[in-house]
Amino acid sequence: MTTFHHTVSRREFMKVLGLTGVGAAALTSPVFHDLDELTASESGGWKRPWWVKSVDEPTVEIDWSKVKRYDHRTMAHSSYPNAQHWGAEKWLANRAESSAATKARVGTKGNTLRDTALGTAGGIFGSYRPVLPYITKNPKDGWMGLTPTDPQKLGMAKWQGTPEENARMIRAASICFGAGNIGTAELSGHERNLVYTYTRVGPKGNSTGDGFVNKWPPPAGYWRKIDFENVDVGYIEPIDGVDDCHLVLPDRPLWDIGVMIPMARASWSTTGSGNNSTKLSSESNSARYRMFHQSTYPCLQAFINILGYHSYGYGAGDGPGGMMPAEASAVLGGVSEMGRSSEICIQPEHGPVTGYYSIITDLPMMQAKPIDAGIFRFCHTCRRCAEMCPSQAISHEAEPSWDIPNFDYIVPNMINNPGKRLFWTNTTQCQGFSGINGCSQVCRGICTMNTEKGAMVHELVHATVSTTGVFNGFMWQMGKTFGYELLDSEKWWEMAPSLPTWGTGKSLWSSSLH
Questions:
Q1: Starting from the edge strand earliest in sequence, which strands make up the sheet with 235-239, in order?
Q2: Residues 61-96: pLDDT tens digits?
Q3: pTM, 2 dp
Q4: Which of 84, 85, 220, 419 is an S-S bond match for 428, by CB 3.0 to 4.6 Å?
Q5: Which residues of the chain have pLDDT under 50?
Q6: How many Cα atoms occupy the beta-carbon half-sphere of 487 within 13 Å?
Q7: Which residues of 244-255 are buried (b: 16+ CB within 10 A; e: fewer)?
């Protein structure tokens, strides 16, 4: 593998593709030069590789007439819709078996003491979340952020900038606070239907657990209801005597900040005994929440508030939820494209190992365009994640579909929201299997786009699939030769001292991660 990376020249590789001569030069020459030539006015300060193109519509087709506001209490991780799909008895039996299987994995490969120490320590940030009530007793400060000061107290005028200037400013601040990058989109007209009707977390707890399988809906306190009203600034009020349950957004011009947090590619790709999950991959997954909720999110909200504007995000205790699907935010805001798995976005610079979040604000920002980097088109041909998925929950179909499959569900599919032409994933099958077997998160780890960026060939693969779909099948097969494979958990500990901070950038193991 290493020898291949060092000995195959660009010209030789192009001969393998059958792209030689003047036509090939027109296609590939820019890959090897600094051609990040998007202007600041078009990109809002984001200079991307030349092969990431801005387009008027997302590469995944959307029928806005069918996109309705979604109840996030019925998302894929919620026991209630999964229990309806399979039947309560079968689902609860699966949960019991899952608990026993988790205990049985203790001490196995990928779940050794040092693996467990890393995974547990990496998630300890959650213990610090309750500190907010000791700083402020006002629940809105968790949703709308703290305001250490404001323009009036500073003796200054409220910030005024053009939408383009504001987008560049927010991008700069977000990156300072830990984001990989951001997208920006105006929430006008049909985009408002992306805002949830209910969140899945409330001040008393989470509505997604097994306890509500047979007593739905959960009572107030285990969710927050979201509405739009004719007010200038959002506010929170009680429902059924429970504080912090009704989130009211102003029916005014609003913008979405889609935040991307890169995750560690190497640790995400690790597998344990029998390709089961590892504590290393779990840490990589939880790291995005640590980075966002402990740094990017509170700092960015405070930044916006100090400028004299408002923002709306995640209620207290709501780690992965927020106000709207973060993947939709990423696609509309030009951060990422959809992938073959309908649950995953793929980002050109960081691949599928990325976490997404959404913050709504009244600070006017430019509307970023969606992107076309050839990723979703590549997914039409590549079925690597589908073939490697241990639960076989990812679609093998050749073309995406507007119709949401019902799989083997007892009732109509409750989890997926219509209006997109996707390769639909059987989320209940995914959840049921991974609970028992410990999903190795292989769909992201094995993805051809989850690659080491230091080698020329990887850049060539990305640039080629962005320009033409002719060689997608070839690239998929060659991905195995390039070393796009999963990583043994013990190997990770050998290479980890040479990985960059957070494990998210270019590795010193530039020849191969594996």
A1: 225-229, 242-250, 235-239
A2: 999 999 999 999 999 999 999 999 999 999 999 999
A3: 0.86
A4: 85
A5: 1-10, 12-14, 16-41, 128, 130-131, 133-134, 453-458, 506-514
A6: 28
A7: bbbbbbbeeebb
**pLDDT value of position 23:** 41
Residue 184, phi then psi, degrees to nearest 5 = -130, 140
Instruction: Report the C-alpha gap between 48 and 106 in whole angstroms.
Output: 43
Please name the helix (run of DSSP H) or strand (run of DSSP E) that holds residue 125, with its range, or none: none
**What are the tens digits of pLDDT across the range 11-34?**
544 454 444 443 444 344 344 343
Backbone angles phi, psi at 142, to 5 degrees: -75, -35
Q: Is 44 left (phi over 0), alpha (psi -120 to 50) or beta?
A: left
Which tokens sit at 393?
A: 């929950």
Q: Write down the pLDDT at residue 6.
A: 39
Residue that the structure tokens 């629940």 belong to? 139
| Selection from 324, 184, 328, 348 nearest residue 262 by Cα | 348
- CB of 468 within 8 A of CB of 17? no
**Both tokens assigned to 288:** 């995005």
Q: For 23, left (φ over 0), alpha (ψ -120 to 50), or beta?
A: alpha
Task: Output phi, psi for 371, to 5 deg.
Answer: -120, 160
Per domain, the residue ranges of the chain are 2-63+82-187+254-503
pLDDT for residue 19: 45
> What are the tokens at 177?
């606070």
Q: What are the start-end ranges of the H helices in 69-129?
A: 79-86, 88-104, 113-122
pLDDT of residue 424: 97
Helix axes 88-104, 79-86, angle to 10 degrees: 120
Three-state SS for 225? strand
C-alpha distance from residue 92 to each of 95, 212, 258, 439, 482 (Å): 5, 11, 35, 18, 42
Identify the pLDDT of residue 22.
38
Cβ atoms of 351 and 260 closer than 8 Å: no
Query: How many angstroms separate the CA atoms of 10 and 473, rounded?
Result: 19
Cα-Cα-Cα-Cα dihedral sign, residues 73, 76, 77, 78: positive
441 Ramachandran zone, left/alpha/beta (phi>0; psi -120 to 50): left
Q: What span, in angstroms and rounded, lies between the C-alpha atoms of 255 and 185?
A: 6
